[in-house]
Amino acid sequence: MLKSPAKILQLAVTLLACAFLLVPTLQSVLAGVTVNYFQGVKSGLTLKWIGEVWTLYSASIFLSIWLALCCLISTLIIGVPAAYALARNPGRLSRILEEFISLPLAIPGLALALALLQVYGSVQGFRAHWSFILVGHVLYTLPFMVRSVLSVMAAIDLKTLEEGAASLGAPAWRRFTDIAVPNAMPGVLAGSLTVVTLSIGEFNLTWMLHTPFLKTLPVGLADSYASMRLEIASAYTLVFFVMIVPLLMAMQWASARAQRTLT
Amino acid sequence: MTLKLTNVAKTFPDGTRALMPVDLDIKQGEIVSLLGPSGCGKTTLLRIIAGLETTDAGGKIRFDDEDVTSLSVVQRKVGMVFQSYALFPNMSVRRNIGYGLKMQKLPKSEIDARVDEVIALCRLEPYADRPINALSGGQRQRVALARAFAPRPRILLLDEPLSALDAALRGQLRDELAVLLRTFGITAIFVTHDQTEAMAIADRVAVMSHGQVAQIGTPEALYRAPASPFVARFVGDAMPLKGRMGSGALHLDGGTLPLEGGAEGGSAYVRAEDVRLDEDGPLRGRIEAVTFLGTHYRVVLSGVTPEPVVALHVGASAPKLGQTVGLSIAPGAILSFAHETESA
Q: Which of A136, B59, B185, B239 is deepest in the core (most CB within 10 A)?
């Protein structure tokens, strides 16, 4: 297996790169379950800090999950029909519209947040409500949903499939629900996982929009780093990992599945 | 159902005229093929009948006594088989076939009974619960036909239904399709660019060229009495006999042939199967190539007309290359036309 020196060198470089990335992460995770970070692991292992994180920041965790779900529902309701409309009517206007939808990707989250604050910041009930952060998240994640669904819809011969359904007597809305959406499912799935992951991890925009009563998971993370002892901050990182890693793995799985469906 | 097209034409937004005004009458239960080279407007005509394209102003489409010109494809109740089949990958064979019946909001028991009936008719029982991507090309073709036929459409429209298959399968499925369409007893129109397909399946063939119907008739009528040089060439591969026509004879490079009816001017064509190697024949030609095709030899000859002439020769041994031989063509086998042009 490892016959040539080149192969051995390749493996060594790969392992080194992995170690470079993983060691700090593991150290941070370890810090979260160590009794005293400065004394090291020999001081003993504990779940106390995770408990502290839960007491202090469980509201942030639930808010993040809630926001991610609302964001997912919003992007599904807006994004899937938008992708469908773009796929059904290819042309210059569609391309321009697609660029517009994608604009939030190119603009820094801080700038997007500032724009939202300038326009809606004075609307009192809205400014301090979680739905204000949701608007920011939807703006930021919508392009990922639209593009993911659009790429699958563009790869299947949607026009002919729909003509087939129409010739069998299916009205426009049935063609959307029976044909377009089910056949674009791999794209919808991949888009959904991306949206949820991005929404849970989003910091820039959320940090600008948050209020002391509306802290999301990453904003809480920054807060704990700034004001708590290192063990709590590290335990927080651990909690964040536990939430985000399964989502990332599911994303990999979904995109692999989408590839299989399309080929 | 009878179909009547009056003045049906199509001009695309960019000004291209895909279809010149066409009139067409199709009888109840008749199978008509639209035959022509690509770009002749045959698929456009089929899509207009289906309601997937609109006719230019002034065109009329009637199903029996009903004017359906303004109805959309959803309301027309046609059965359509697409070139790519357009089967729904997210549904099983059974659900594909039942989809049209579901759209008619029939009770489930009725849908199931009809789907079973059509599945049996198309011999799809072993595949009924399979997903579409687990089927072969030939099976997909039958599912597409079954799906189009299940909701009892008024007319079946088939757009190049065999062209997605490989050559060996195409021949077999062509005969199957002919049998199935007769079993259905439904009025059907199918588009093809393959004359063998058209002649094997259709009661009547409409040969199309440059957006117009060049000729419509039974396969025999088209073959024996083509109305134009284009039809002669497209149906049965007639070869031009380029020479001078006059005084009741056709003067070619390789000799002179007597003509029936004493046509003056115009053009003449002949098919390979009507050219005979005959030592006493009035024409002379040099053998350039010989291909053995099992039942006969295909012999390519030069010196008869400016272009090579092909003869089909049945015999025990191959004609010799380079030899100059005599040829004869029966006067009745010469297809003569008053005008020179090849277009319709």
A: A136
A55 interface with B at CB cutoff 8 Å: no
Contact in structure between A81 and A172 (CB atoms under 8 Å): no
Q: Which domain holds residue A171?
A: 27-262
Q: Which of A157, A158, A159, A168 to mutate to test the interface with B (most CBs of B within 10 A)?
A: A168
Which of A228-242, B70-84, B283-297 has the lowest average pLDDT?
A228-242
Contact criterion met (CB < 8 Å) for A163 and B104: no
Task: Give the whole-angstrom CA distance, residue B344 versus residue B230.
Answer: 6
Nearest-CA distance A69 → chain B (Å): 26
Q: Could you tell me where the beta strands, DSSP code E, fall in B162-315?
A: 188-192, 204-209, 212-217, 239-240, 244-246, 249-252, 255-258, 267-270, 275-277, 283-292, 297-302, 309-313
Reported as a single tens digit per residue, the pLDDT across A132-176 is: 999 999 999 999 999 999 999 988 889 999 999 999 999 999 999
Q: Does A212 touch chain B (CB under 8 A)?
A: no
- CATH code, domain carrying A40: 1.10.3720.10
pLDDT confidence tier of residue A231, bands split at 50, 70 and 90: confident
pLDDT above 90: residue A210? no
The answer to whether residue A122 is domain-embedded is yes
Task: Find tokens 């009924």 and name the residue.
Answer: B128
B86 contacts in A (CB within 8 Å)? 157, 160-161, 163-164
Prediction pTM value: 0.83
pLDDT of B25 above 50: yes
Question: Rounded to an integer, what distance in angstroms lies between the CA atom of residue B257 and that of residue A152?
Answer: 65
With CA atoms as reference, the chain B residue closest to A183 would be B90
- B98 pLDDT above the threshold of 70: yes
B219 in contact with A, Cβ within 8 Å: no
Go through the domains of chain B in sequence order and give each one's CATH number. 3-234 (3.40.50.300), 239-337 (2.40.50.140)
What is the distance in angstroms between the Cα of A170 and the nearest Cα belonging to chain B?
6
Could you tell me if B151 lies within 8 Å of chain A, comparing CB atoms? Answer: yes
A167 at B interface, C-beta within 8 A: yes
Judged by CB atoms closer than 8 Å, whether chains meet at A178 and B100 is answered as no
- ipTM computed for the complex: 0.86
pLDDT, one tens digit per residue, over B134-174 is 999 999 999 999 999 999 999 999 999 998 888 888 888 88
Q: Does B154 touch chain A (CB under 8 A)?
A: no
pLDDT band at A2 (very low <50, low <70, confident <90, very high): low
3-state secondary structure of B245: strand
Cα distance between residue B129 and residue B94, in whole Å: 6
Q: Which residue has the tokens 């703006």?
A: A139
Q: Do A167 and B151 touch (CB under 8 A)?
A: no
